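Please go through this protein, sequence plus structure tokens, and consider how the sequence yields the tokens. Keep your notes short.
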Amino acid sequence: MIDDRTGLLTIGELARVTGLAVRTIRYWSDEGALPPVGRSAGGYRLYDAACVARLELIRTLRELGLGLADVRRVLAGETTVAQVAAAHVVALDAQIRALEVTRAVLSTVAKRGSSAEEMTLVNRLARLSAAERRRIVEDFMAEVFEGIDAADPDIRRRLRFAAAQLPDDPTPEQVDAWVELAELIQDPGFRAQMRQMIEFNAADRGPDTPAGSSLWFMSRLVSLATRARQRGIAPGTPEADEVLRDLIGDADRAVVLERLTAASNVRVARYRELQAIVNGLDPQPTYDEEFAWVAAALQARAAG
């Protein structure tokens, strides 16, 4: 009730005026955010009109997520609302990123129909820090390139870029791709496949071969095979043999086929696809039909 003698409000009346629960006001008062201006003869806390305004400010700050410690600092003039708000924006951004990762993990688990064990693995992989993701990639790079100095440096650069760039606010698709990519590059069988590719590349490069030549060769392969297919040239024909000669000269066709098979297998293609998703890139063309045409032409030539 209102203390008629003083015109001050009891805690019950303050609750009715503001719509807040008595126990909430009492708690904020006990914590020092809303000290009473006095006490009644019966020992009840009393509040004035300034306390009503102060209480509204406390409620607003609390609804915005500020803790009572920050509220007290604002009310005491130790900091400004703007400064506290800026700090909370940073904290909220971190919470939002964490929630987005949680959402992405749950989406991945739901899509995969994961068991409890796989859900644990997915969650662990998705929540790795950027530094931990880089360590996984560096371990992969170290095993694949160990002792091989002659490989095309452009390949090393592209592989290092690929896997550690999961953004702070990933989509469910990026989390799913990162988890699959992390599983893939930690798989001993896949590492052996990738190392074989690097060994082939190093063996085929001369001492003066410029960086990027491997990519140039693949681009030329796609270009020549595309034109051959557009012209209706079938593998195994004399015309196809001319295309191969234009592409690889007098190189051993069986050796080239072995290299091409290593570079265009399904798991390597999936690795490249996952790279693009994790890094937020448009789907990359696989040129499966072009590689298949060249492989068929090489096989026909070897069989002939």
Summary: The radius of gyration is 33 Å.
